[in-house]
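Malto-oligosyltrehalose trehalohydrolase, Mycobacterium rhizamassiliense. C-alpha cells?
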Amino acid sequence: MTEFRVWAPKPARVQLDVDGALHAMTRSGDGWWHADVDAPADARYGYALDDDPKVLPDPRSARQPDGVHERSQRWDAGAARWTDGDWAGRPVEGAVVYELHIGTFTAAGTFDAAIEKLDYLVELGVDFVELMPVNSFAGTHGWGYDGVLWYSVHEPYGGPDGLVRFVDACHARGLAVLIDAVFNHLGPSGNYLPKFGPYLSSGSNPWGEGVNIADADSDEVRRYIIGCALRWMRDFHADGLRLDAVHALVDTTAIHILEELATETDWLAAQLGRPLSLVAESDLNDPRLITPRDRGGLGITAQWADDIHHAVHTAVSGERQGYYADFGSLATLGQTLRHGFFHAGTYSSFRHRRHGRPLDTSAIPATRLLAYTCTHDQVGNRALGDRPSQNLDPGQLAIKAALVLGSPYTTMLFMGEEWGASTPFQFFSSHPEPELARATAEGRKAEFAEHGWDADDIPDPQDPQTFLRSKLDWDEVRAGEHAALLGFYRDLIALRRNESDLANPWLNNVTVDYDEELAWIILSRGQLRIVCNLSTEPVTVPLAGDVVLCWGEPAVGAESTALQGHSVAILRRG
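C-alpha cells:
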C-alpha cells in the first residue's frame, strides 16, 4: 500500500485519482487529506476537488512526465544512483560561479548534454555551476521563473533523474552546484495551488500575486517553501540555492522566512556534513540580509550586488539609461569597488528616494557579495537580449572581466561571456494557451515601446526562433578573438586562485585611484595593481611594475606605464 497525502484546507471533499480510478480520502483537522492505496510505482495520480471533474497534479509532485496540467508521478529519491559519496562540498564565498540556462547552454538543451560541457568548465577554472530554475513550468522552453510545481524537475530537461546525473557528474569533477529557486510568485499557466489552499497573499509584486507567507493560515505555506528549498539540497545533493528576488517576499512576522530558511539550511548542512549556501537576489541594498543571525541579521550566505555590475558596465560602455542614471563616472566605480553598495542611504534618481544602507566592511567580508559583468537579467531583460559582447570591443570586455575577477568579491560569469559569445540571450516562453501567449508577446512589445523602442524590433517571446537564437554557438570558442578572450578569462581565474593578495576577502585590502578626464583607473590588491584604460586613446599611468597579465601591449617604464586604448595590465609592484 502507498500513502498519499495532500494539504487541501479549501475543498470540502478530495478524491485521489490513480490511473483513472477514484479513491475516497480522509481529512485531518489540520487540513491534510490521507488515503492508503495499492498503486504501481509508475502510476499517474492526482486529486479531484469537490465536484470539479478536472484531476489536478499533486502540489508536492516529484515528477510531471506529461506537463504541469496533467497527473503526477511518484519519484523515489532514495532509489537515485549517486557516486558522490566522497564529495565534501565547498563554500560559495570567494568562489567563481558560472550561471547557465540548461535549455540554451547546448543545442540539445538537456542535463545530459550539459554534462558533456563540464570538462570545459573545469578547464575554465570555475568552482560552482548555477542553474537557472529547473522546476516544472508550462510549455517546453522558457526561463523557468514561471514555475508552478516547485517540487518537480522540468521534464524536457531530463526530469529528476537527469538532474541527479548532472549534479553527480559535477561533483565527480569538483564542481559544486547552486539551483535557482523562485518562491516569490507562481507562473500564470498551471498554477492550481489556490484551489487547494491559501497559497497566495493579499498583495502582489511585478510578476503577479504574492505568496502567502505572513497572512492567515500561512504556516503550512511557509513549510511548503522551506521543504522545497531543503529538498533541492537533500534529495538532489545541490550545494545551495540562488533565491530569486527576495525583496518580493513580504514577511511581517517576527521571524522572517529567510531567517527561518537559513536556520534550517545550517541544520541540514550539519546533518549532511558539507557546507550549504544560500545566495539571494535582493534589490534592497540591506546588509541585514547577509549579516549573521547572532548579530541581528537574517544569516543568508551571500547576495547578488547589482550596484557593482552597474558601476562597471556604465563606466566601460557609456550607457546611462534607466537605473544606470546614477552610475557611469570613475568616482562612482571607485566608490562601489571599495564599499560594495553605491546606494547606501543615498538618493536614487531612478527610485526618486533614498535607497540602501552602508555595508559594515569591517565586519562583513566582501565575499558575501557577488560581482559580475552580466547576468541572465542584465542581458535577457534588455529589449533585444543583446550581450555586452555585441556592443563592446574585446578590450572593453577584458577590462570588465579584470575589474570583476580581480575584485575581492565572490564572482559570477554568465554562460558564454568568457569568450564574448555573439549569440543573444533573449526573453522566450512557450505558453500553450493562445490567449496567454498573445498577452505575453504584446506586453513585452508595449513595455519597451514606452521607452522608445520600435515594437517591431522586439523579439516575440513565443516565436521558437527567439529561443533557438539564444542557444550558445560552441564553434565560436576556438575562433579568433573569441579564443583569445577565453584565454584571458582562464588566466584571470587562475591568477585569482593562485595569488594570495587576490584571496583577501576584506575591503581594507582594496584601494582605487583614477583620472576622470584621462579615463584610467587602478584597482590595487596588495602587491597587485589592475590598471585599466577605458579610453580609446593611449594613456600613460603614473605606476610601474612587472607585468603579470595583460590585454594589449603595455609599455612599462621606470615610473610609469603606457597603455593602449581599451586595454588592461595587471602589474606586480617591484
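The domain at 505-572 is CATH 2.60.40.1180 (Immunoglobulin-like).
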